[in-house]
Amino acid sequence: MHDGSGRIHVQGLNKRFGPVHAVQDLSFTVQPGAVTGFLGPNGAGKTTALRMILGLVTPTSGTATINGLPFSRLPKPGGVVGAVLDAHGFHPSRTARHHLLCYSAAMDVPDGQVDRALELVGLAAAADRKAGGFSLGMRQRLALATALLGDPQILILDEPANGLDPEGIAWLRGFLHAFAAGGRTVLMSSHFLREIEHTADRLVIISQGRCVYEGHVDELRAAQQSRALVQADSPEALVNKAQEAGYGVEYLPDGRLAVLGADSRTVADLALQAGVALYAMQDERIDLEQLFFQLTHGQFAGLAQHAPPTPETWARPGDGGGV
Ligand SMILES: Nc1ncnc2c1ncn2[C@@H]1O[C@H](COP(=O)(O)OP(=O)(O)OP(=O)(O)O)[C@@H](O)[C@H]1O
């Protein structure tokens, strides 16, 4: 039964495993009607946080609630949350349908939901094939079908795009968008911003167990100002015109101008108004991946000091280096 909220609320969550402080004072909210990407480098604490939300790991302190309740107190949790933490736990000799029937019986869900779930994830044609012969992409879909059995309000997916080919990623994106557009909630983890930036509407980025960003993907892009790089025959006249229009301008060492927050089309219009000829224009795109590295820098600090081996490391004695 859906109560119309579909909100996940994490407040001051901490988890220690002996000396490892896996999740540190983590707070964020996941809203319904959107896909929220839960992002962080390897070891950032994503899986631990998801497991705490799902009541599989006990927090050292803090709370995680779904629709205002801890997972363990949700009435009929299968109808509220469907989760995929691992797409590998299938009995290899069981068919996809048989696998789902085992779960539907355990969840007290009508058997009709099995065929619906297989249809929803595009596995209807493979329903009677053994899961042991499934590709990684098919296993991901079967895991998703399992999560959908209870017709949940919320999907929590740990690295659902892992191992998917581009077609599989595009399919997953369309699936999750439609699910969220119907007013439901998606929380999905990933360690690649690129993999998630066109799927997620909102982002929660963590590093070393702490939240370093929570907000819309577009806001993150906007935080990194774009700029147009131009070569002008009369830079001073263009600078004056751009400043009049409210744009900041920087002189680059190579003689070009960088007009901050503008695209090349806007700068071309300004140049036309100022009677300035332009010889070259380039839009500098916002590199979200770079921003992600900056935000999670602390996590990589130790690794960065350990430079990868050089080609000399692999040279065998007596190698002349020629081919
Ligand atoms: N059961 C456990 N016992 C001890 N340490 C653990 C346990 N589970 C996780 N950790 C540690 O907690 C930290 C966070 O791990 P976690 O798996 O939550 O990160 P993650 O962001 O999901 O990483 P990845 O993207 O590599 O899966 C890591 O240092 C990990 O080694």
Topology:
Elements: E1 8-17, E2 20-30, E3 34-39, H1 46-53, E4 61-66, E5 81-84, H2 96-107, H3 112-120, H4 136-148, E6 154-157, H5 166-181, E7 185-190, H6 193-196, E8 202-207, E9 210-216, H7 217-223, E10 227-232, H8 235-244, E11 249-251, E12 257-260, H9 264-274, E13 278-284, H10 288-295, H11 297-304, H12 311-314
Residues 17, 20, 22, 40, 42-48, 191 line the site of adenosine-5'-triphosphate.
What does this structure look like?
With 323 residues, the chain is α/β, with parallel strands linked by helices. It folds into two domains: 8-221, 3-Layer(aba) Sandwich (Rossmann fold); 226-284, Alpha-Beta Plaits (2-Layer Sandwich), CATH 3.30.70.100. 34% of the residues lie in helices and 25% in strands. It has a six-stranded mixed β-sheet with strand order 5-6-7-3-8-9. The protein has a four-stranded antiparallel β-sheet with strand order 11-12-10-13, covered by helices on one side. It has a three-stranded antiparallel β-sheet with strand order 2-1-4, covered by helices on one side. Helix 5 links the parallel strand 6 (154-157) and strand 7. It is elongated. The relative contact order is 0.13. Mean pLDDT is 89; it is low at 301-305. Bound molecules: adenosine-5'-triphosphate.
CATH H-level superfamily title of the largest domain: P-loop containing nucleotide triphosphate hydrolases
**CATH class bucket of the largest domain:** Alpha Beta
Provide the spatial order of strands within the biggest beta sheet: 5-6-7-3-8-9
Strand segment count: 13
| Structural class estimated from helices and strands | alpha/beta
Summarize the biggest pleated sheet. Answer: 6 strands, mixed
Nearest-angstrom radius of gyration? 25 Å
Spell out the helices and strands N to C.
Answer: EEEHEEHHHEHEHEEHEHEEHEHHH
The domain count comes to: 2
Overall pLDDT level: 89
CATH architecture of the largest domain: 3-Layer(aba) Sandwich
CATH names the topology of the largest domain as Rossmann fold
